[in-house]
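Continued from yesterday's entry.
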Amino acid sequence: MKKLLIFSLVVASLACSKNKRDETLVMWYDSPATEWVEALPLGNGRLGAMVFGGTESELIQLNEETLWAGGPVDPNPNPEAVKYLQPVRKALFDNNYALAEELCKKMQGYYTESYAPLGDLAISQKFKGEISDYRRELDLNTAVASTTFSAGNTNFSREIFVSEPDQVIVIKFKADQKEALNFDAVVGSQLKSSLNIVGNNTLVIDGKAPAHADPDYLGDTPEPIVYKDDEGMRFRMTCRIINKDGTVSADQAGLHLQNATEAVLVLSAATSFNGFDKHPYREGRNEKAVADNFLNKASAKEYKKLKKEHIEDYRKYFTRVDFDPNNAKTAEIPTKSLSKRLDDYLAGKDDPALERLYFQFNRYLLISSSRPGGIANNLQGIWNKDLRPPWSANYTTNINLPMNYWPAEVSNLAEMHEPMLKQIKNMSKTGAATARNFYNMNGWCLHHNSDIWAQTNPVGNHGTCAPVCANWMVGGAWVSQHLYEHYRFGGDTEYLKNFAYPIMKGAGEFLAEWLIEDNQGRLITAPSTSPENFFLDSDNNRRQVAVAATCDMVLIWDLFTNLIEASEILGIDEEFRRMLIEKRSRLYPLQVGSRGQLQEWLVDFKEAEPHHRHMSHMIGLHPGRQISPLTTPDLAKACRKTIELRGDDGTGWALSWRINLWARLLEGDRAYTLFRNLLRVTDNNVLSYGPGGGSYRNLLCAHPPFQIDGNFGGLAGVCEMLLQSHMEEIHLLPALPSVWKIGSIKGLRARGGFEVNMKWADNQLERAEIFSSLGKECTIRTNIPVTIKDVKYVTKEHISDGKTYYLTTFSSQKGNRYLVTPKTNRNKSS
């Protein structure tokens, strides 16, 4: 018991020391951003800001997560669609792929709506003398960005953060000489809006989003942005200057501060969004009252209090995990700016501190863009400057939405998963109408795209979209995986029973009905696409629609398996469970193709694009659990061949997916190679993205253009390299790359309610602590068992009559597998 208590005290002491600034977690630059993708992202889950860090002219681009075009979806946008299912199936069974594609287009509905930009805050500052000693930075320790510089004999600073407790954006301006601070601040919006002045220090913008915005990929359309008098989401944006000295005035040209040394600008915003099924104009909430309330309450607080509460709120999430590859925390910190460090890294120089920074930056992004009670991360998180953003900045459900939340549980940010889980529930409601109206089936379904209004139909404006990007009926299975994973990590049976299971069951009911028999009694899907990928038929024509794409089969296997387990855990639905077990046993089996690869379609078609970005047929390896080198070595070998054939290039998110796949194959060095590739920029060092993908200089990932899923997929990939638990074991350092010879990781979560700390040296595990929140036993797997010097198992406080600790009885089972069994020691006075 003493040993345990000492360990607990050490952990507490380490946690306290984290309040000291960690310079390895500071992103800094010696020049302002010159384009949007170089600006620094800030957010509180709801409000987003991109900070350029200019001197004479500063631009802060603004977003509010619920500001979207459109309104609730039409439940039956294509009443004719249901007529075409059987004709499509007949065409496929006749191998008439061209006809099947044309008929699929007749089963399409509307496109999704677009995420809209809120506006801009432009600041013009007046100086005497030349600018020198410039620095802009984002401190991941505090989620505070700052810009500092000198002009003449005066030092100037701006400090900016987005507060979750107070729901405002806060900027502090300061000069170290009296009366040297002078600036003008203007707020504006691309959306239809009007400007009003309140008193001498407050500007208010009232406006509304379009009733509809066409996707950007449609190009020039007759009316791409549509406004209607009684349609569209309303919004209010308001900002106020609180001056310590000097004078403030306001007019139609903006807010004006003169002859001051210090001032704080507070900005608030809100929309009329009142739920995915509520009309934002007629049934919307009072956005003016909400925005004004946030502004007035925050304005009444001292700046120090606003900042302190912001940092405390942020750090309670951020400090849970600490990654230290090659002792990056204690190594000499590079004195170069992040841009120059990236140049060196991309030229082949090792920089473990940069890798540590990137890992934690991605956790920072998740905290900053997805908070409980809010809206799920879209393609760009919450940051967007365009009225018609790339791919509408919507929820692309065939990879991007799931990838956004791959790291949520394992990187100890389970609370940030909640907005996606809520989005799934919303989509299950609209998806029930889609299943009924498009296919005359029970349950609910989801296709390629969704939005804040929980769109679920095949997109395409009744026939303008390629089926390979629209007619994919198994999206509900993939997103439902997140419902069950949240349970597998946390173990909350009430959540499973009352929230997750009913939604999963609805997705299962649809897919059980969607399956049909082939001529050998095996269950297949038809029509079927492998998201966004084409194959060549026997006449060498590019085709999209087939039957039983591997993606379909592994997702249905995954959903049925999760439902079978969940129903057993809850002790319910025995008859439904038996039906799923029977249907799972008859699913068309996975096939190995002529090149030794995992086949992507039922037939071993030749790929039209051999290096395609999507890896949809690999879902059974990651993020699923149907394939593993430990249990299905032949299929794992086929997966390995598949990834090799696809190559190590691709868009940012495609590289991220490949990192996770190599990690699941337990090949850390291959995973690490792609991890480094993820941070590429162009060869001529333009502040942009690399060929086919990479990282902008603010470490935001490129498709191109910017898509945040590459960041979150990269974070998930590193976690998979260090810890895996999908196979009912806690696998410690399963794919540790040889370059990370020494290091540590603290706070990763494993399925079953466990939290794991590890330390390694000479590429071998040296120490591990396994914490249990549920008091469950666990099985530990290590690659080299003889190196374990100290493995400790501890439970957190979870019994109401006192503190209970479970100490280890640790015994070898089979070579490198260990069973850790809890042994109760109660001590109420501990």
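--- second protein ---
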Amino acid sequence: MPYVDGESLRERLTRATQLPIDDALRIGREVADALAYAHGQGVIHRDIKPENLLLTKDGSTLVADFGIARAIGAAEERLTHTGLSVGTPTYMSPEQAAGERSLNGRTDVYSLASVLYEMLAGEPPYTGPTAQAIIAKRFSDPVPSVRRLRAAIPESLDQTIVRALAPVAADRFASVMEFADALGSATLAMPSPSMPLATTEQLDGPRRVSLGARVRRWHLLAAGVIGVGLLIALAGLFAWKRSQDENEMRLLAVLPFENLGATGDEYFADGVSDDVRGRLSRLPGIQVIARGSSLPYKKSTKTPQEIAQELGVRYLLTATVRWEKTPGGASRVHVTPELVDVTSGRVPRIKWQHPFQSSLTDVFQLYADIGSRVAQELGLALGDKARQQLAGRPTENLKAYDAYLRGREAWPSLFSSTPAILREAAAYYEQAVALDSSFAEAWAQLSMAHTLLYTNSTPTPAAAQRAEYAGHRARHLAPGRGDTHLALGWYYQWVRRDHQRAMDEFRRGRRLDPNDADLLNAAGSIEQSFGQWDSAVVHFERAEILDPRSPDPPRNLMQTLLWLRRYPQARAAADRALALAPGTLDVIEHKAMIALADGDLAGARAVMDAALKEVEPAALVADFGAYWDLCWVLDDAQQQLLLHLTPSAFDDDRAVWGFVLAQTLWLRGDRAGARAYADSARAALEEQLRDAPESPDRRLVYGLVLAYLGRRSDAIREGERGVSLYPIAKDALSGSYYQHQLARIYLVVGEPEKALDHLEPLLELPYYLSPGWLKIDPTFDPLRGNPRFERLVKGS
């Protein structure tokens, strides 16, 4: 082990007994961060105690002595046999004390909570004369409250520790970083030292007056308060209006900078423009058009007036970049920015231009200088906080920064991504964080890449764990950046399906970056899950204003309006998205779905025919087969093409491939062929569900596959389980789709009335099924003639 200049936590506790609450929480969070990294590598510590936590003189905490650590899921080693526990009795979890063979990260959660308890209370949660006595108390006594020994501990912190000390592992926090998050929330809930809590006497003693006295006092003050309040309100209104007018004048687009160097340096020039754009966007008093809307103007031949009009801005920031590489010497960066004023009706003029150059090692200072001069030219007064934001250095490691820029080049858009693109970008981000483990922006991008790989490809524990660790690491390193909250929110939304925590993260991010289009899109997405459809529409519309040339906001708006059955507006949003990104398969499919909701199968097929000018036929039919179960919309030739595709067309996911071909053959009346492919899908799904047993999507597909195989009771069981994981009451956006799939399972197994029980409510909720859709979808042919179904088709 390396030498650590400091002391152990045990030495400090021996000297101080109890630690200040802030110090204890800081140490606890730092230990959690270290353990999360270990767990992310598949290792649990199993002996967290004060002796193994080292406090350095610079204030950091190190976790030491992995002497009895073991790999999660590894075969039993000699140290652990039935009835033999390894660890320190005072801090080991009940399952560890019982000698259980299968341990996971929750055992370290318990041990860390025991140490935190001791830091706050001055003694461990369970004490006794012997190890056996301590272990016995852990199994028989209730979980102790730290507040019984230290009344100043907030209730929220006490409850957090109680949960982490739960005797049953499943009742604790699911991961050590979830425990760290709870500690962070408890910290935020603590009163400021400068604002002491009022005592009961202060609240209820001298201030006690009768209701009548309060009313009389109000009448005496009312006239003065209303008069002063009106003046304040009017002054505030004028100040707000003036502020709004100034902000309207500070609408800026940072266009992709022109690379004057080697062709291979293109990614670097893009990175310079991204960095300058990001710094300016975080300044109060200025609105910067999002990256997605600026990227399409790279090497554009349009005039400044045309670009400004399309983006709705007054100012354009352009620049040329040249990366001068001297063999054996220091590289230099030359940037010449121009701030162009494109006031409506006037000839564009260069408001400011100035060449900058610096060595590559000082490139972040160069970015800060450009941002500062732009803000100055726009008449923006910068406070200390704004100057600090402009001067920030994302990393001190230039090789890490280079890898990060290459990742951004590989994956330019958050939502338009394929598994292959995500894997390429993730590899670059892994390089970046390996070179600099404190690179928060790279951790955030890495988390989002793994989250989308988990949802858009085969869900694996490795992707989930990496998304979680990277997201927590990003937020821990840079809690004041909106993108770190975006990354963690995505993880909670799409991997953990914890929508409340996702919404909390998005709200924190938006408080930091209220004009960030990605956070607005995320907020709208999670609001749909809560059934807050109108609010989602507002956020998507706001995102479209800030990101007018990106297809993502209108794409999100299109889907929401389809669910709300507002078809003309949905179609208009789809057209806007396709005008910006003609080959986006998701938008093509949703535009076809709008026609289907109107009962227009010919219109849906016309959308597909038009799309063939932009996309390959195989990609189009694979998308319609894999998403939203639309194989029935394909004509006979397209279905034949679909049936000849191999698993590679579905990212080598044999479960999806087998299922798509099975349902296509089932609808074509080929029961034997459908069962053959269903069996292939079954085998792949059973393997995937061992890794992701709580995936409702895979669970319901598994139910449908079993239904095709004639396993009626198993199919129903799996379908019901999938819906129970995320019912409509828990997730209004996805829950409707899951209930729709359960209705399909009941149809395949021959139970039409139960299918209708689940289908009927969907016509009363925001969802894409409609009377027109039911009329033309052959999936529902077994229900035709049924009075209940015919009433749905008629819309009555």
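Confidence is low (pLDDT under 50) at residues 73-85, 191-249. The two ends are 75 Å apart (CA to CA). Will compare against the first tomorrow.
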